[in-house]
Amino acid sequence: MFPKFLKLILVFLTLGYAVYQFIETQIGNGIALVFLAAVFVFLYFKNELILLSFLRLRKQDFEGTQRWLNRIKNPEKALTTKQQGYFYFLHGVIEAQNNLTKAERHFKKAISLGLNMKHDMAMAKLSLAGIVMQKRRKREATTLLNEAKKLDKQGMLKEQIKLMQQQLKKI
Description:
Layout: H1 4-23, H2 27-45, H3 48-58, H4 62-70, H5 75-78, H6 81-95, H7 100-113, H8 118-134, H9 138-151, H10 158-170
């Protein structure tokens, strides 16, 4: 993981060299360097280790996801607030397989820090509602399900929410 200041330095250096290439009439090289600078700008706002963790998670490789997340040392300093939210969200997904108490703590931390996309926030609240429901806290689970339902504008989690509401009635 590159520190943020190093990413900014790389952006300015590549843009400076791109301007030099434009002056020297090497237009193709200049354009390629501008695209390279755009990659560094993208990596400034999106942490590369979290992106790699999401790729591992999509393949259901929880050990690989954990390995990528363990490479982030001191997430409070290395990550922005939203990136920290995704860091704890991924930890919550991993811990939900084994330890519900730790998973609940991670999901609550992710929700408090915030996530960029509403459907990610809905998924975090839905997962937390499932954990709370297993712990027999019906009122809290109902609140979380209603919040997840409000956040799910596209209806991606509609079936899961409906299924959890049915299970909640049985409690």
